[in-house]
Prior knowledge:
By secondary structure, the protein is of the alpha/beta class. The chain has helices spanning 4-25, 47-60, 74-86, 121-127, 131-141, 222-230, 238-257, 284-294, and strands spanning 28-34, 64-69, 93-99, 102-105, 108-111, 129-130, 145-151, 187-188, 201-205, 264-267. The protein contains eight helices and ten strands.
Amino acid sequence: MWSTFRLTSVLAAFALWLPVLAWSADERRALVIGNGNYVHGQRLANTLNDAADMCQVLKQLGYETDCFVNVQDKTAFEARVQEFVARLNPQSKGLFYYAGHAVQLNGESYLVPVQAEVRNAADVRRELVPVQQVLDLLKAAGNSFNMVVLDACRDDLFAEAPVVAAASGRGILTARKSPEAAGEQAVAYGLATIRDAPVGSIVLYATASREAAYDGDGRNGPLTKHLLAHIREPGIPVEELIKRVTVGVQTETKRAFGRRQTPFVYSSFTGEFCFADCTPPVNQRDVERSREQAKPWPQVHVPPSL
């Protein structure tokens, strides 16, 4: 039989480990990148605000968040992603958020550092960051849940200009050329469909394929604006959050720009995740109603029969 001293020592040691176990069970890490001051492309007004506001909110929600703006080149961009992924563990909940320009080449998506100059297909591979590379690194980390938010255009670089003012679209509008200028490969600014996302992940695009994403006429772009509006609400699973964001983006862009922007999502996640607490907030009216129902029935005095 264990002595009282030994049992007490074991319980004390276990108590010391409890905070560690609780933290590791739901460790949250985020990488936020906002690129706006492009040297060779259309500058974006709101992406730096988007990144700053997302960083602030994620930190409030308990994420260990690394935040970067105006990442200069491919080497620096890839280093930030690799540092982020290296800190994930099997219990981590990861979030990668990017706001800025994007390019598509033969069905592959690329994110654009601010000093990149895209003149042809070769420049895309040499100077830009493949989205699939980010997804592959997350997949190798093997953590329990990842969300990737890409607040960028998915329009065609060589098609007719989208129905949106050049200053308000998140695409490299100044780089428009004929398809022949890019050689035999078709280049597009925007994001292609996802081929191989990590199991247990959600990838949220600002808009559907070959469509424009607005930069917005306020502080934030529409997607980030509505993410910020709902992400702190308790009791909302991530799937419901995305639905609310989608409705908000569609309504706002139709009213403000006359053209509806529809966020697009790819998901292989089957669990439960909430950015805020998954427990719904207590409705005070329901509490009062429950109290009333729990009150005992009044005692009725019945005189004895004569």
